[in-house]
Amino acid sequence: MRFRSVIAVIVMCMVRVPAAHSQPMLPAPFTVSTDAGDTLMVCAGIAPGASSGIDDSLGEAEIPPPPPDGIFDARFADPDTTRRALGEGTWIDLRTGDPAGVGVQHHLLLCRRGAGTTVAISWDLPSGVAALVELRDVVPPRSIMATGRGSAPLGTMGPLITMHITLHYNVRLLTARMMLEGPFEPRTGRMRTSLRASGILAERFPGRSLPAKAVDSIGVELRGLAAEPDAEERLAQPAWLTEDGTVCPFDPPFDAPLVFPDPLQHELYPAFFHRNHLAVLCTRPIPAGVTAGECDMTSGSELYDGGNAARLAPSLWGLRVGDADGDGLIGTWDRTAVRTAVGRARVYDRCDVDLNGGVGATDLALVRRGIGAPMKEP
Hints:
mainly beta; 5-stranded mixed beta sheet; 11% helix; 37% strand; elongated
């Protein structure tokens, strides 16, 4: 135990190498611990002059070979196992990158739990830095999105634990939830997944992985509200919406927040767009300098700028349905478009406003009900 404590102190000292070098660095320290009392801190990060191998000038050094099972250990290894640029491993793994710019780097952390049974990981990350920690070899696979200072139990693990760590630099994270009025089913309190179940989504997005309970794709945007419209900061990306309202990344892992590159870290407002529902701007911003924000658009109508909220159930709100022609309004043109499309089956169609895979009387009724509703285009 005393030996491991000394190692932790050495690593902590090396994490402070920016004061000893002319090159700026952005460190991301992690601590692995077990229920047997073993603990060890390691550090990933970026520096302009770093390489994918061992850089002595930046405090990196190859450590002795891993111990046998039964002895606690944690070390970074080269993610490219055929290249072995880190040799037997290191406690510090710095990669090339601009601390003031947007970037992504991948690290491989190998741990041996020793005499312990359960394992935990903790972190202390700078503002704007997010870490996706993936356990791909467990069943089911697990992922943890880390920001700021925190920790997470990994549970009971085997003798060797492999963690894939993806570090995102100068980003904003968004965890969001929203409902669509069209596919919402009051009986279940969820949205129908007919497009996913019938294979229509797979046909529309060939070769792309889909969440198990996907409803449809949506667009998500973070936008600043600057005095000059041309100066607005806009960060946009596609996403998936699932039956319980969870907004998922467009690419796996689906149980992670949305990641937006954002070196400016200004105050930003979430906005949501769907192909046949009214778009909406959330009235609650992610404050400047905050790495991870949350937005639950189901929790109150006051979150909908301009009143674009549909009341789906007591204390449950969603996006208003009926913009079949995509002009940002619900009017007679939408009604005409849906009436003309009635009878289409097995389609990915704007006129299928209830998202059941066809256009029929229910779609027409939903559009008629929405005509004249209050609205404000975000």
